[in-house]
Write a structure and sequence with these properties.
The complex is a heterodimer of chains A (200) and B (104). Chain A has 200 residues and is of the alpha/beta class. Chain A has seven helices and 13 strands. The longest helix of chain A is centred in the C-terminal third of the chain and has 20 residues. Chain B has one domain.
Chain lengths: 200, 104
């Protein structure tokens, strides 16, 4: 029937289980398991692990993300936690702090169970497929810099200050996030330099 | 602002607070505090105390309901719990078990 939405101004503390698609624009603190797609809107603040068929993030998430099918971090996404899915997309402008792993879909059978059951899987069995995926990802990353770092497009208006502003705001919103704020920009700088070097 | 919709197939266990309308067609266990209206659709199952401005119940609710404005128990709605509200309507075909306090 109706699409499920947790709108801005709505806060849920606890466990959410969804058999359908779910859009979050508000605040969620706890656990989120979905057998459909989960969309975290740009104004959303989520402090929970998320497991879903497909995850799209444009807001702030603190917790591990696991997509059974795919995972997409949009521009403006701020993720602190491990990110796992067979296919992962990270758009320019998305911030990630954590481990990123493109694992084989077959390594995801106990996906709906608890964190304890879920977590060991990718670490203990780095299957050849996962390695392949990793190398693929590396290759993709090597190609990426040119579209990812079009400085003119991003810095054209207000350069770095503009870019840092949202992360500061994010820190305020998601309360106890003192650590990420200073670290994330630092990380970004480094990747920027690295990519510069690579592009040369 | 758009309403929060807890659709069919969604189960929430915990505490839900909202500044806006909440529509429940799924399952909610815990507590529900809303500054706007709450609608429990015919498929909705709520096992929670509800506090809201207005509450319309077309589904099954187990828990105490407190509304600053009004509570409407619609036809087909089931409510087990106490109601505290200035106004209460119970439609023909609704079932209700509990106490009513209209002395707000």
């Amino acid at each position: 029937m109706s699409d499920s939405t947790i709108s801005a101004g709505c806060s849920i503390v606890g466990k959410i289980t969804a058999e359908t698609d779910l859009t979050v624009d508000g605040h969620v603190d706890g656990q989120l398991n979905a057998s459909g797609a989960v969309v975290i809107g740009s104004g959303a603040t989520v402090k929970s692990d998320i497991t879903a068929e497909r995850i799209e993030v444009a807001g702030a998430v603190k917790g591990d993300l696991r997509g059974r099918d795919a995972l997409l971090l949009e521009d403006g996404a701020r993720v602190v936690g491990d990110v796992t899915a067979p296919t992962i997309g990270i758009r320019p402008g998305a911030l990630v702090r954590g481990r990123v792993e493109t694992d084989a879909p077959s390594a995801t059978p106990p996906a709906r169970s608890t964190t304890a059951a879920r977590r060991p899987a990718p670490r203990e069995e780095p299957k050849p497929a996962a390695k392949k995926a990793a190398t693929k990802k590396k290759a993709a990353r090597r190609k990426a810099p040119s579209p990812v770092m079009p400085k003119a497009g991003r810095t054209g208006k207000k350069s770095t200050t503009k870019k840092r502003a949202p992360s500061k705001r994010a820190t305020k919103k998601t309360t106890r996030k003192k650590a990420p704020a200073p670290v994330v920009p630092a990380l970004k700088k480094r990747t920027k330099k690295a990519s510069k070097r690579r592009s040369r | 602002m758009a309403a929060t919709v807890i659709g069919q197939g969604i189960t929430i266990e915990g505490e839900v607070t909202s500044e806006d309308e909440v529509v429940v067609s799924g399952v909610l266990r815990g507590t529900l505090n809303v500054e706007g209206p709450v609608t429990v659709e015919s498929d909705g199952v709520v096992e929670a105390d509800i506090g809201a401005h207005t509450v319309a119940i077309g589904g099954a609710v187990t828990g105490n309901v407190t509304a600053s404005e009004r509570v409407d128990l619609l036809a087909g709605g089931r409510l087990v719990g106490d109601v505290k509200a200035a106004r209460l309507t119970i439609a023909d075909g609704a079932s209700f078990k509990g106490n009513v306090d209209m002395d707000v």
